[in-house]
Specification:
The longest helix has 17 residues. Helix 4 runs parallel beside helix 7. The strands form 2 sheets. A 5-stranded mixed beta sheet has the order 1-3-2-6-7, with helices on both faces. The protein contains 7 helices and 7 strands; from the N terminus they run H-E-H-E-H-H-E-E-E-H-E-E-H-H. It is globular. The protein has a single domain, classed as Glutaredoxin, CATH 3.40.30. About 50% of the residues lie in helices and about 25% in strands. By secondary structure, the protein is an alpha/beta fold.
Length: about 160
């Protein structure tokens, strides 16, 4: 039964990603997003998210329902939604050093939560950030409230700063 849970989670996650933003292409992997960004010359819009939070759903709804934001994300960004509660196992566990401790990352969710903490010193969702094709932060991470207040302005600043 326990081995079935990651497979079911993967299926649900795939269905959510496929149906969540029909006009905004989304990848669920940071490294893949950087690779696409390098090929396309576009920055990466990162959204650290989870399946179980109403604020995450609100951000996703805003993207779905605001055609201006949808078009801007589609035209100017590689979009990466990184689910910190993704229980799919990594192909191989990854050992990392963090603050003098050795940690083993076993799932994609562990990997994205670790990335969020190392890169942005935050562990909250939703958290949005913009990085260039090399992964350098061009717009600091913002919370749900900050993003709701000026979503389009944030995206426009990210494009300007990544040039």
């Amino acid at each position: 039964m326990l081995k079935l849970i990651p497979m079911l989670y993967s299926l649900v996650l795939s269905l959510l990603l496929a149906g969540c933003t029909p006009s905004v292409p989304v990848v669920g992997d940071y490294d893949q997003a950087l690779s696409i960004a390098q090929q396309s010359g576009r920055p990466v819009f990162l959204l650290f998210t989870s399946l179980s939070c109403p604020h995450n759903e609100a951000i996703q709804e805003k993207i779905r329902n605001d055609s201006t934001i949808q078009r801007y994300l589609e035209r100017h960004y590689v979009n990466a939604w990184l689910y910190v509660d993704d229980t799919r196992p990594l192909p191989e566990p990854q050992t990392v050093q963090w603050k003098g401790e050795t940690r083993t990352l076993r799932t994609y969710g562990n990997k994205w939560a670790h990335l969020e903490w190392v890169k942005f010193q935050k562990n909250l969702q939703p958290l949005a950030a913009i990085v260039d094709e090399e992964g350098k932060v061009v717009c600091q991470a913002v919370t749900y409230q900050e993003l709701q207040a000026d979503f389009l302005g944030y995206l426009q600043r990210g494009v300007e700063r990544s040039k």
